[in-house]
From TrEMBL:
Protein name per Swiss-Prot or TrEMBL: Helix-turn-helix domain protein
HTH cro/C1-type domain boundaries: 36-72
Pfam family, one: HTH_26
CDD domains found in the cross-reference section: HTH_XRE
Molecular function via GO: DNA binding
Organism domain of life: Bacteria
Classification via PROSITE patterns: HTH_CROC1 (PS50943)
Amino acid sequence: MTDRQANSPNIRDVFSENLKILVNRKQSISQVTRDLGLNRTQFSRYLSGTAYPRPDVLDKICKYFDVDGRIMLEPLANLAKSPEEIFVDTLDISPFMNKMKGFDHARAPDGLYQWIQPTHLSRGNVNISLWHLFTLPNGYKALKASVPTYIAKASGLSCLWKDRKQPGIIFQNSGGFTTLLSSHYNSLLFMSYFTYGYRGIANIYTGFTAVSQSAGPTQSQAQPSMLKRIQPNFAAAIKARRECGVKKMEELPEFEREYFETWSPFAPGYKL
């Protein structure tokens, strides 16, 4: 910033008004100047807008009031928002919200689902866990899942439910839906895409799950996955819960096993 810019009436006015607000939050002007080690008369000139502090003094003032250099350019009220809030205000998320609002709940009803996917911890096996899909009061579709206990143990992570839980949201697609899960362990995101009615079976959804970071050089970041809707009764829920964990691929029904064995991330006929 040039001396001419620093001495412009507009910047001095903005800074002085912001400084007055900040000082009013403290005990007194005398207390502020003592804490800052500044001359009371000179500080009063900052408050009146007749003078502007040197860069080193401005830095001291900003640190004292826990603000940044924008106090010389923008009214203090505009600086109250966090960077995250500013980002949300400027980001147009309406397309995503519309896909959440228009969810076809009849084709993916609320309730328990089994999520099945090959596990990278042991070849030839699949991991089975439970997902709970539910509708929020605003009509949006959401889900709750959790990191399987055996994966948490194998990874040296906490096995407590509060640490393993994975909240998620669901978006409508033309032929299915997309889920987005977060992790309490780290910054990983899990995105799954499912299509309706595998082989005409309404309660089975097939697709793939992609993770934002690979767990190792031998693990693919995208793998086939399947959702199976559990009948809404207590006996079916208990049975589904008992089936959770690691299971040999060969123990799956033939049509389920065939899906995992023939899955490819590329369209049929695609050649590299």
